[in-house]
Design goal:
Elements lengths: L46 H15 L23 E3 L10 E3 L5 H12 L8 H12 L5 E6 L3 E11 L4 E6 L5 E3 L6 H10 L3 E3 L3 E3 L8 H17 L13 H17 L5 H29 L6 H28 L4 H4 L19 E5 L5 H12 L9 E5 L2 H6 L6 E4 L2 E5 L3 E3 L4 E4 L6 E5 L7 E3 L3 E5 L2 E4 L7 E3 L3 E5 L2 E3 L5 E3 L4 E5 L2 E3 L4 E5 L4 E5 L2 E3 L3 E5 L11 E5 L2 E3 L4 E7 L17 E5 L5 E5 L3 H8 L16 H27 L7 H4 L5 E4 L2 E3 L4 E7 L1
Parallel strand pairs: 9-10, 9-11, 11-14, 12-15, 13-16, 14-17, 15-18, 16-19, 17-20, 18-21, 19-22, 20-23, 21-24, 22-25, 23-26, 24-27, 25-28, 26-29, 27-30, 28-31, 29-34, 30-35, 31-36, 32-34
Antiparallel strand pairs: 1-2, 3-4, 3-8, 4-5, 4-6, 5-7, 32-33
Helix pairs in contact: 2-6, 3-5, 7-8
Length: about 700
């Protein structure tokens, strides 16, 4: 087995207090006999030779056999001294210290679960494999531990281990040591509690008392692995999932990676909150489902109430499966940023000032007289301005934006401004750079979430260069209201600009690059207008989220004269679920959208009410994630993007009608039912994108 932490060879250490031997240390390697029977003893011609021979024999006796199967990657019981640290408890000073095992690295836990505990077991075999692992490495008795609950801590002694149930038989240590938030836990109460539990406790509730001999290192580490597994990896519904897959690959590895991604600040705080919320919802629904199922199974009657319970159980099951799918998307490092999450920002708009005044905020670290004169002439005191402006000066843009109220304007003078925080804009303000974007640079340092969070009704950002470093989330997110980006340069780190549900983005004459995800992410129910932008050197150019779900509205998308080039994947990607024959079946329906497409001669042509043949021709091919044929790369994407979006919107309309029909609504107003997607995709150029101009991501 590969050597892991702490399995490096330990030097021979004399017992504490033992007098230092007179023998000199022989550092030369001893010659071996050809038969391999141990070190050869040289003739003791003098005292030095004898000392060398004795030392060589001592080294041979204490040399560890690397091939010994009794050793694990955590060190051997035979080694002298512990390889683990200790935790000094802050509470009761009489309590002994415990082993420090909660600091293990990702690869240490990964290797333990993959190679020693779970291997290739199925979900139904997890407990059995864990019991076998504990039986190999856990000391069966003779060690002390602290039994910890949310209410108390008490020192116990382990007298036996019931491996199959993952429990340890314990008794109270003498003298009795207990630390509790309440004073009711006396010796008699604790003995009574242990009797109720038949003196058996789950091993994950035990923290092994520190021992510097090294004898209980493996015991402490084994219990830590079990404790971590049941706290962060195992789900109560795992055992009921399909049992024909490798549990480690399917569940353990992605959940373990997510845990360490969160610890290392690589996951947005909003996504973390969503994950824990989904997990809590799923656990609550699963408990409710188990109670309902046990109630049905214990009843032999075929009453109407039991039939109702069956229907309710099926609904709960569907809800649980839906939540489990969402959890799996977040656990998967490749998909968590593709599908994203619904972030509900808690920003509150300040509104207008009590006197209704509007202030112009000027940002400059230092300002020259000539620059101030130009500002006064062009921005602060223009000839057309009849009202006198109130001006405030700031040294950094984050302070200026934080001081804004409804209707304020922030003018940022040329310079490079490094901020360590997030711009949260909840009011309708204007943020503009005075000069060219490359002259007015705002650079974000430090790990955190978004660079810009916009929720105001009408926000305008212009002539700025935004540079992102060490980011966790995208460079700008529009959660509510309308945000206009004009003449800006966005140097991204993770994803680029995100347009959330019910939000609106107008991005004009801007340059966006460097996103490790998509340059622009468009959510269902949003409005996105992209005019004359450059989107390049990203993972994907533009990503349109799945909007087939019944809770989502179709986004309104306009793309005109953009240059989308040199992206690693596709220029534009549509994310949607795999539905059998979903595009082919639309051929029998007419599109209710209005599409502007570009012809091969470069002239635009309005195509209204696409018929059976036209829609069938443009939309029946399944767009898989593989390299598309190179046909007129700069312009071929416009038509297929528009047609695919309209085809998907027609599919959604059909699904909506089918749901109404299932509910017994046979007559529906088409004007109310139709959710039209206004798509204007004209004059866009797609150059040198790794997989082509357009594709779909099927999940």
């Amino acid at each position: 087995r590969a050597a892991g932490p702490g399995s490096a060879e330990q030097p021979f250490v004399m017992a504490q207090g033992e007098p230092e031997p007179v023998l000199t240390v022989h550092r030369e390697e001893e010659e071996k006999k050809e038969g391999g029977e141990g070190p050869e003893l040289a003739p003791a011609a003098d005292g030095v030779g004898l000392q060398e021979n004795v030392q060589g024999l001592k080294q041979e006796l204490f040399q560890e056999d690397d091939d010994d199967d009794s050793c694990s990657d955590y060190g051997s019981r035979d080694k002298s001294g512990t390889i683990l640290g200790r935790i000094v408890l802050d509470g009761n000073a009489l309590f002994p210290d415990t082993f420090q095992t909660n600091h293990l690295l990702f690869y240490e836990r990964f290797k333990a679960y993959q190679d020693y505990i779970l291997a290739d077991c199925k979900a139904s075999e997890v407990k059995e494999f864990t019991a076998e692992y504990l039986e190999k490495v856990l000391e069966p008795s003779g060690w002390q531990a602290i039994w910890r609950t949310n209410v108390f801590e008490v020192l116990v002694e382990v007298v036996d281990v019931e491996y199959s149930s993952l429990k340890a038989a314990v008794r109270l240590s003498e003298p009795f040591l207990c630390d509790s938030h309440v004073s009711t836990f006396t010796l008699e109460c604790m003995q009574e509690l242990l009797e109720l539990k038949k003196h058996q406790l789950p091993v994950q509730e035990l923290w092994v008392v520190f021992d510097d001999s090294g004898e209980f290192d493996q015991t402490a580490l084994a219990i830590e692995h079990v404790r971590f597994f049941y706290q962060h990896i195992w789900r109560s519904w795992d055992e009921e999932d399909e049992d024909d897959f490798d549990y480690f690959v399917r569940c353990v590895e992605p959940r373990l990676r997510l845990h360490y991604d969160i610890l290392e600040d690589r996951v947005p705080s909003g996504l973390i909150a969503d994950y824990h919320n989904l997990l809590s919802q799923c656990e609550a629904l699963y408990r409710k489902f188990l109670n309902l199922r046990s109630g049905i199974s214990s009843s032999d009657s075929d009453s109407e109430s039991e039939n109702v319970s069956m229907v309710e159980g099926l609904k709960l099951y569907d809800e649980i499966e839906h939540l489990k799918q969402k959890l799996k998307l977040i656990e998967n490092p490749l998909l968590r940023y593709v599908f994203g999450y619904q972030k509900h920002t808690g920003l509150q708009a300040k509104g207008s000032r009590s006197m209704g005044t509007k202030i112009t905020h000027v940002v400059s670290s230092t300002i020259m007289a000539s620059l101030l004169q130009s500002l006064l002439r062009e921005k602060l005191c223009p000839e057309t301005c009849d009202e006198e402006l109130e001006i405030q000066f700031h040294s950094d843009p984050l302070t200026a934006v934080s001081a804004c109220y409804e209707g304020d304007t922030v003018i940022i003078c040329p310079g490079r401004y490094v901020v360590d925080g997030m711009f949260c804009i909840a009011d309708s303000i204007e943020l503009e750079g005075y000069g060219l974007p490359d002259d007015v640079v705002i650079e974000k340092r430090g790990k955190g979430d978004n660079f810009f969070d916009c929720t105001g009704a009408n926000i305008r950002i212009s002539s700025l260069k935004l540079v992102q470093h060490d980011a966790v989330e995208g460079i700008l997110s529009v959660h509510h209201g309308k945000t206009t980006l004009e003449n800006c340069v966005l140097q991204c780190e993770t994803t680029g600009v995100t347009v959330r549900t019910a939000a609106e983005l107008l991005m004009k004459n801007s340059d966006l690059y460097g996103a490790k995800g998509a340059g622009v992410e468009i959510y269902p129910g949003s409005t996105c207008t992209l005019l004359g932008n450059g989107i390049h050197h990203c993972k994907e150019g533009i990503l349109i989220k799945d909007f087939l779900d019944e809770h989502y509205d179709i986004p309104k998308i306009t793309m005109v004269n953009n240059v989308i080039h040199n992206n690693e994947g596709y220029g534009v990607v549509l994310v949607k679920p795999t539905v059998s024959s979903d595009v082919k079946n639309i051929a029998s329906k007419n599109s209710e959208g209005n599409i502007q497409t570009i012809q091969s001669n470069g002239e635009t042509d309005n195509v209204e009410d696409l018929g059976h043949e036209e829609l069938h021709e443009c939309a029946t091919d399944e767009l898989e994630l593989h390299e598309r044929a190179e046909i007129s790369e700069q312009t071929e994407g416009n038509c297929e993007i528009a047609n695919e979006l309209v085809a998907t919107s027609v599919k959604k309309s059909q699904m909506h009608k089918k749901r109404l029909s299932e509910l017994g609504i046979t007559e529906a107003d088409d004007n109310l039912m139709s959710q039209e997607m206004f798509v204007s995709i004209v004059g866009n150029q797609f150059k040198r994108n790794g997989k082509g101009s357009f594709g779909t991501f099927l999940f």
